[in-house]
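User: Please predict structures.

Assistant: First:
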Amino acid sequence: MAPSEQQPTITAIAGLAREVEEFVAAGGWDQPPQLFALVPTGALLDEQPELAGQLDPANPLTPVAQEALPEGDLAEALGRIAWPDVVTGCAIAQEIIVLPPDVEAELPDVSEGDAERLRRAAADHPRRTEARLVAAVLRGGEAACVMRLRGVAPSGEAAEPGTPGAAEAAEDVVDEIIESPDLAPNLLEALKATLLP
């Protein structure tokens, strides 16, 4: 391995997760899940030298957007993915609903087979917050997650369109960014499984 292609660190994978989130955020909200291969920049430039003006050779890895995932269950779609050896890692961006911890008791008690009913209950809950979650992993096991909470007002409450004062409050609304590898352990494990030989 050339010195310029040093082994990516946990800091590097966190940076890649942020890069993927910023790329997806530029497209706005209400997007389907998006999958990215994390490829050594040197290998990508060797294969496609015309990209030299678009890629930073100082970055050991470059996220490469993949074709759209099939509609339906994300776990099933990930279970069918196998990466070629040149892919050092992968990342996924998906929009989710986040609820405060104390709300869990209010949700209907449903079986695993009725997950759609639970998703609808969460999506309809008045204290929900929409979010975009990016999870990224490397073959060596390093992992990172970044979550962007949509339109969180400075008070911590989600902005609800159509409520009194919403227009004035909209100017104060900002997206909050949270970074932690503990945000989505199951999703990270599913991504790691796509990298197994």
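Second:
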Amino acid sequence: MKIKFLLFLLSLSFSALAQSNSASKLVVINSYNQYLASVKTNPNNELVEIKKEIPNIKLDIRYATKNNFMKQVMYKQARAFARRPVVESLKKIQKELNKKGYGLKIFDGYRPYAITVEFYKKASDKNFVANPAKGSKHNRGCAVDLTLINLKTGKEVAMATPYDSFSAAAAANYEPVTPEVKKNREFLIATMRKYRMNVLDNEWWHYDFSGWQSYDLMDIPFEKL
């Protein structure tokens, strides 16, 4: 009787493990036709090219160059995309900033899942890159890396660190910083938050769209978009 009971418990454990593994299996959309079908079902799923929707926005797509933490070209094209509601938020943000003499510079937007895998393999500090086991909000087209520029000079305003820094000073609430940096950082965070874009705690340049959970992980290369 005891043996049967132990076997029963063992079978339950295996069943629970199988269900857990099944539930945790990551779903990544890598079929272009499947992506198009999702857009047809819900237009908000479209990965919109940011520059086409907001012509006066500045781009500095570091991963299309060797000027990044990987020290190699990761994107074949220097383009930036995001889901349609994200781009609509950016459009409103840009309009508000322009009235105050500022604008946005975009470093990165939608990031194909395969790139996230490569980042995780080579990053010296895994705290600054997404774990492929969960995927990135960039992979969902719901995260944007950016900074502020002065419209008169075209130059970036002062921030605590350069883009993609792996230092503690990259945190959105890092102290001490100069009054100028604090003012710039808080101004950017507050403006972005008004339009559903929330800063990542350990990266002042990274903003996630509120509602990112509704969008699938994607692995469609820029060349197909």
